[in-house]
Amino acid sequence: MPLDLKPGTAPDVSGADLHWRALEGLYASAPINHKFRSVLEIVGEGLSRITFTVEPDCFHAAGAAHGTIYFKMLDDAAFYAANTLVTDRFLLTTSFNLHLSKPIKGGSIVAEGHWVSGRRRVLVAESRLVDEEGEEVGRGTGTFMRSRVALSSLPGYSGRRPAS
Questions:
Q1: Greatest Cα pair distance in the chain
Q2: How far apart are CA 138 and CA 52, in angstroms?
Q3: Which of 70, 72, 80 is nearest to 113 (CA)?
Q4: pLDDT of residue 28
Q5: If we measure between CA atoms, which residue out of 83, 139, 85, 87 comes closest to residue 110?
Q6: Could you tell me where the DSSP H helices lie in 14-96?
Q7: Which residues of 127-158 are buried (b: 16+ CB within 10 A; e: fewer)?
Q8: Which residues of 3-21 are buried (b: 16+ CB within 10 A; e: fewer)?
Q9: What is the pTM assigned to this prediction?
Q10: Separation of alpha carbons 137 and 10, rounded Å
Q11: Is there a contact between 3 and 13 (Cβ–Cβ < 8 Å)?
Q12: Band of the pLDDT at 15, cuts 50, 70, 90?
């Protein structure tokens, strides 16, 4: 999202804000995310929100979202919440536990992630899925560790959100 500046003013952008916008760009640029109707928003340190549109092309034979969709939404929300605290390296998911509490029959789903603990080697983050009625439909907890991949080496990590 471009900065809206008045003539003669300087942007009030912190290093954290630049990192968060770059993470949003990284999410938008990942080839896997081109298969989903979703948008990441970093809402603060240790906090992420991803809005997904779940349509019938994600359903299993019984007419609700397949478990892989739950995992994708929950893992991504927790991952990006944790990666707000790591500004130099891409994180890797080392484990993730899911609790699926209600079938998703479609519509807009919000995945909310928040960092729980750890800042050095291993970070722990949780996430939850909320449906259009405001009901929690799933929850997850993951552990994430720093990889050897520098965020700055990734083409999508530019500090600019791609045009929609």
A1: 59
A2: 14
A3: 80
A4: 96
A5: 139
A6: 15-29, 67-83
A7: bbbbbeeeeebbbbbbbbbbeeeebeeeebbe
A8: eeeeeeeeeeeeeeeebbb
A9: 0.87
A10: 43
A11: yes
A12: confident
Looking at this protein, which amino acid is placed at residue 38? S
Supply 146's token pair. Answer: 């720093």
Amino acid letter for position 111: A
And the tokens for 63? Answer: 């007419």
Least Cα distance to 54 among 100, 97, 103 occurs for: 103
pLDDT digits (tens, 9 = 90+) for 109-159: 999 999 999 998 899 999 999 999 999 999 999 999 999 999 999 989 975
Cα separation of 152 and 9, whole Å?
28
d(CA 96, CA 98): 7
CB 91 within 8 A of CB 146: yes
